[in-house]
Amino acid sequence: MDKQGLITLEYVKTIVRERPRDAHKGTCGRVLVVAGSLGMAGAAVLSSEAALKSGAGLVKAAVPDEIIPILQIAVPQATCCGISDDEFLRSLEVNDAIAVGPGIGVGEKQYLLIKKLLESYEGPVIIDADGINDLCRYDKDFELLKNRKIPAVLTPHPGEGNRILEALGESDIASMGRIHAAELISRKTGTVVLLKGADTVVTWEFGGTYTNTTGNPGMATGGSGDVLTGVIAAIAASGEDPFDAAKAGAFIHGMAGDIAAEHKGQWGMTSADIKDSLPDAFKEIVGK
Questions:
Q1: Which annotated residues bind (6S)-NADPHX (predicted)?
Q2: Does position 11 have pLDDT exceeding 60, yes or no?
Q3: 4, 46, 247, 261: which sits with the fewest CB atoms below 10 Å from its CB?
Q4: Domains plus CATH for the chain?
Q5: Tens-place pLDDT, residues 147-199
Q6: Is residue 196 a known part of a binding site?
Q7: How does 178-215 read in b/e, with b if 16+ C-beta sit within 10 Å?
Q8: Torsion angle (degrees, nearest 10) of CA 85, 87, 89, 93
Q9: Pairwise CA distance, residues 33 & 45, whole Å
């Protein structure tokens, strides 16, 4: 991976462009969000609403039955289905991108759901949080991710990144550095990797390595990653390839965080403030 660069506003403007005049909700991308659990409904709410605020035309949240009422009230623009209902698994191909992992918990049941999803769906899949943790526990060789025609996107924070490296039998991020760690994970799992943190790194074995230029310490708050997952899923659902979606998603998420910090201050801003600043970030990029 000898190609390296910065993710800048000018660069992202080549990825995220103005919608055509004849756009409608069916052409703006369908996103399926598989997220949440009892006590972690907020993860599903944040990811789903972030996808909507990032331009997805239609969002469906697949969540445990007991939190469906929460989702329907918190995100009325999204449709919902029970995660225990296999019906949504039989119609995966209607989705243009899938986000899986935020708040789902770690266990064999969750892993089997992820396994079925990855084996049944060939489109872009963004895997975050517990989705990563489940793979680290039950698929340590990451065979489910290798050789996909469209690479999955992994979005680990440093702790999750270290779990992936441990599962792969490698040393930790501190020992090898963030860029090398992200590149190694990408190469060994066959995925696009977005390693979160100050100077977020986005890399793909066949595309190079890029460092993000937006964001601030106020974004170190619970739920920020759930928002990022929704942003990337929406951009991928619009037709962009997963690598470009991850790069643009990192930049726009960071820009939304910078806008939130400008209005709220870094000390007290929340992930909801980041989510609610997404439309302003997209307006800055596309001009409308």
A1: 43, 103, 157, 226
A2: yes
A3: 4
A4: 4-282 (3.40.1190.20)
A5: 899 999 999 999 999 999 999 999 999 999 999 999 999 999 999 999 999 99
A6: yes
A7: bbebbbbbbebbbbbbbbbeeebbbbbbebebbbbbbb
A8: -150
A9: 9
Query: Is 14 known as a binding-site position?
Result: no
Give the DSSP per-residue string, 84-96: T-GGGGGGGGG-S
pLDDT tens, position by position, 241-266: 999 999 999 999 999 999 999 999 99
Q: 198 a known binding residue?
A: yes
Residue 12 has pLDDT above 80, yes or no: yes
Does 226 appear as a known binding residue? yes
The Cα 170–Cα 190 span in angstroms is 16
Say if residue 199 carries a ligand binding annotation: yes
Check whether 237 is labelled as a binding-site residue.
no
Q: Which residues pair with 25 in a beta bridge?
A: none
Q: Is 197 annotated as a binding residue?
A: yes
**According to the annotation, is 5 in a ligand binding site?**
no
Q: How far is CA 164 from the centre of its chain?
A: 17
Residue 82's H or E segment, with its range, is strand 79-82
pTM for this one? 0.98
Report whether 200 belongs to an annotated binding site: yes
Query: Is 43 labeled as ligand-binding?
Result: yes
**Burial class of residue 20, CB neighbours in 10 A (0-12, 13-18, 19+):** exposed
